[in-house]
Amino acid sequence: MVGTIRINYDASFKCASFGLNARHELGQVIAAVTNFSREATSPLLVECLCFRWTLCLANGLGFRHILMENDYLMLHTIKLGRQS
């Protein structure tokens, strides 16, 4: 979709850090940012903090049409409401 920003984000529980890269529809990087958290007490929590941070950063950068990607299956399951 024209005007959509693709954001790939990931977190690491080992060092409680996370980051993202954002690309526009032609694939050019328009943002690459890292951060860390002292609140991360579990892998799921650090992934959730990363997800929230990514949304806040995207909003702050003025991105209105975004496609978010990550590789943490548990977070996708929870987002889809399939957590038992």
Automatic annotation (TrEMBL):
InterPro entries: RNaseH_domain (IPR002156)
Source taxon at top rank: Eukaryota
GO molecular-function terms, A-Z: nucleic acid binding; RNA-DNA hybrid ribonuclease activity
Protein's UniProt name: RNase H type-1 domain-containing protein
Source organism phylogeny: Eukaryota, Viridiplantae, Streptophyta, Embryophyta, Tracheophyta
Domain RNase H type-1: 9-76
Pfam families cross-referenced by the UniProt entry: RVT_3
